[in-house]
Amino acid sequence: MVQAAMPPSDPGTGRKSRKRASEEAIERTATERTDALGARALRLAEYYHGKIETVPRVPVRSLADFSLWYTPGIAAVSRAIAADPDRSFDLTGRGNTIAIVTDGSRVLGLGDIGPRAALPVMEGKALLFKYLGGVDAIPLPIFVESDAAFIETVERIAPAFGGINLEDIASPKCFRILEELQKRLPIPVWHDDQLGTAAATIAGFLNAIELTGRNVRSMRTVLLGAGAANIATARLLLAFGHDPHRLTLVDHKGILDAERRDVDELMVRNRWKYRLALQTDGGDRRGGLVEAVEGADALLAASTPTPDTVKPEHIRAMASGPIVFALANPDPEIWPDIAKAAGAAVVATGRSDFPNQVNNSLIFPAVFRGILDARARSIPDQVVLAAAKELARHANDAGLTVDHILPTMEETEFSPHVAAAVAEEAVRLGIAGRPRTRAEFYRIAQEIMRRPPKLARELARSGVTLPMPDEKSPRRKKR
Predict the structure, then answer these.
(1) Catalytic amino acids?
(2) What angle (nearest 5°) sits at the alpha carbon of residue 205, between those of residues 377 and 37?
(3) Is 164 helix (H, G, I), strand (E, B) or coil?
(4) Mean pLDDT score, 109-136
(5) Which of 122, 190, 407, 427 has its CA 20 to 30 A from that of 312?
(6) Torsion sign across C-alpha atoms 198, 122, 172, 154
């Protein structure tokens, strides 16, 4: 019997199928890793019941010492502060203590999960502040029904703190709250999702453009997402000399330009976004992400935490060897391996399990270390830029590669240098209450920052901090 001849297979179709299968395998592996990390984090949270605790700073040799640390001796300390309120920075822990305040309205890509569910994130933040910056940070998720109530609450607690870190607040109210608190309070107020993320992004961006031989003044950049992080990043990019007409912001409605239908509404509802619409006019582009990335040199995405937000065809449409930052958490807008396979020269994410983590933890501990050491009254953009440039310089000095555009969290030697650069800039701007030289600030920061890791090691070595439980049988050691 003669069988009918099979038609020849299309080689192009075969290649496309293999490429898609490879992309799906990468997505599957990365998703499984994310799920495994989440499951382990939940088991450890059940085991340790929180990540931070209060530890005495003073010796307690016997109960008699409480007559010094508490009544009656403490009355003299209170009277000294009543006579001169500024002495509260020196006679208490205020000078090294900040509040981490959130209403839980936009948490880590999880959305509006409320203040109670935000607490684990704020605890983690407090741990990072202490371990990396030597800063004592108190997590304070609060229930509030309005921006005014948020501002009033922070004003009322401010006398206990040397600074305020705002965290995970929805846009655009985060801009209003930050600006109003900066006006009202005599201590520095910082919104890490704006300023910390923007500074880390700028630092990585500076090194990425050096690696790829680009110039900030002539390149075309797309910012995907127009929330807290990218609004601040756009502002800092413009301060660095980026041409506004080669800068394109894209949100869920498309390219943000001066003629967009909702621009008048933005003028009332979100003046920060409105100003950028006028200033950049969409980078002379109209349409959506497809039109924005055509021929672009860089894509800085801080938008939806879904790996399909940016597709391989978007990367292929960009200029040769583009820069791609996919910063959404917990899942980036595109997995790094897929972006590289599509032609990206440098890829960064917000995750520590991939190379080039653009994470604000590289910035905020050192910024607050420097600000508190200088006793600065505020944190203007010049200070943020000083931190970004110093961070970029240290990664550059260590040797730039496509997988090393920023220090990792284990390369902690850069931190006191960033703190000293921040403090020096505060002195230059005339906002430091305790001016010193850069070398003096560096020595102070280095000494303070060395203590928490040493303390953690000593507590672990002595068994005061419980070791990690056996992953195979965590319940066996549960308290």
Answers:
(1) 70, 125
(2) 90
(3) strand
(4) 95
(5) 407
(6) negative
